[in-house]
Amino acid sequence: MSCGLALAAALMLSNPDVAAAAAAPPPPADAPVSVASEPLFADIVARSTRLKALVDGWNGIMPAADAFAAFRTETEALAALDMQGHLILKQRGTDGDLKCILRGISEDMAKKVEAVTAAASPREQAVALSELAYLLNDNVEVITAPPQPAV
Known about the structure:
mainly alpha
């Protein structure tokens, strides 16, 4: 096989995204840094993902009381971690949007869980569970989204 054919085969088999990433200029030194890989934030993502999977598995129907009590305890711990993340970002003086969103999620978590228990009908319960699942998903997405520069 000639060198030209070997080079052509290697280029056809290579991932164009790798070449594009290598050609991109490096980010500026003052570009925002993602916190998603930091242990606290990775823990929040893992817990939120797991709790959302539980809610999705309930298919809009309340689980047994003891299962929901354990779930409530876990959401309280998650809300505390969200608040801790907010306080850490506040102390650093970085990422204003994420800082504010984590605080809001922390405050809304108990309200969404309470809405599930206060639902008077199966339809209201399904809506409340759906809103809780959305909040848990939002918790994952805001942390894992690429950070945006300050405006």
